Amino acid sequence: MNNYRLNQQIQFIVEIDKLKTVLRQTMLTDGSRRENSGEHSWHLAMMTMILAEYAPSEVDLFHAMKMVLIHDLVEIDAGDTFCFDIQNNKSKAQREAAAAKRLFGILPENQGKELHLLWEEFEARETPSAKFAAALDRIQPMLNNKATKGGTWQLYNITHEQVMKRMAPVEEGAPQLWNLVQETIEECIAAGYLQPPKSTTTTQG
Amino acid sequence: MNNYRLNQQIQFIVEIDKLKTVLRQTMLTDGSRRENSGEHSWHLAMMTMILAEYAPSEVDLFHAMKMVLIHDLVEIDAGDTFCFDIQNNKSKAQREAAAAKRLFGILPENQGKELHLLWEEFEARETPSAKFAAALDRIQPMLNNKATKGGTWQLYNITHEQVMKRMAPVEEGAPQLWNLVQETIEECIAAGYLQPPKSTTTTQG
């Protein structure tokens, strides 16, 4: 191609096809296989549309949608780091920062910088749009875990405490959806998909 | 859940997970497997972002992005119809209309209607946003076919004439990207990924 700028953009578009081969721990709702990060990102974008009315008024929905679309791109180099994997989460930030530099570096400079900032905004979880995007990123695997009778919670013996810690950002990022989370977790406990919280009563003596 | 409206929306979000199991003919760029319609829709949404500057000024980019996100949902019931499959394309409209009715019917009425209209807008390809969305939907498989040395063109002996007919909506929907299409097709012919156009010279006698 003669157009250097467009050529860089097309290179990037071809490169990110690889996100479709990055597997997450979450299963599809039919339990047939693990979900990949490309289709996961699509699902979050759909949730941004469908659940838009529950976003706090400060949320810029187009901006939040762009954020969920790109939030996992760094996994092309860094791989998906399972949220409950303590060891690999220690090196996650460094691995992902290097990935972001390479990947967004394929784009024309101004556009690469724009996407890099958008990804950093998602990671920092400080703006209302980033908090809302993060909330959706927590809710989607919860729904898939419910649909697969506990899914990764069962597979890795994840505790109620771990799940609630993971879900916590929903309360701040999408307070109108917090009740949904609490009810869904209760339903999962009642159905035996997740172990109930351990009694907080301490033993005496 | 006590909230009936939210319950319908969550049902829809869980239902559309199925789009991840609908396989298209297109291969991933690494040739490892066929692409599914969920990850394909994500790729188009990414292209809407990355190629935004080439959209005609009348295009509403957020609207176009929503359109590419939902454009294939009907395939959950109707399956993916290969663009070069003449027989199955005859029944495509009817199968997809029934699918749209069922799927969008899961949502609260006003939201279901909104999405149904959005899908019909994409299908009708009359508005600038729908034409731009359709153009991206043509360019993405072309890029994947190039990356896989001809991909489905080779597999099904698709002719240059068929490909150019398929690509034609790009010229109207994204005229600034038409040159890219022409050059890419020429590169594919030069590399042997696509048969050159048949000579238009008629035999004498």
Automatic annotation (TrEMBL), chains A, B:
GO molecular function annotation: 5'-deoxynucleotidase activity; metal ion binding
Entry keyword set: Hydrolase, Metal-binding
Source species, domain of life: Bacteria
Instruction: Report the InterPro entries cross-referenced here.
Output: HD_domain (IPR006674), YfbR/HDDC2 (IPR039356)
Q: Any stretches that span the bilayer, and where are they?
A: none
Q: What's a Pfam family this protein contains? A: HD_3
Any one Gene Ontology cellular component term annotated for this protein: cytoplasm
- Keyword Metal-binding among UniProt keywords: yes
Q: What is this protein called?
A: Phosphohydrolase
State the organism of origin: Mastigocoleus testarum BC008
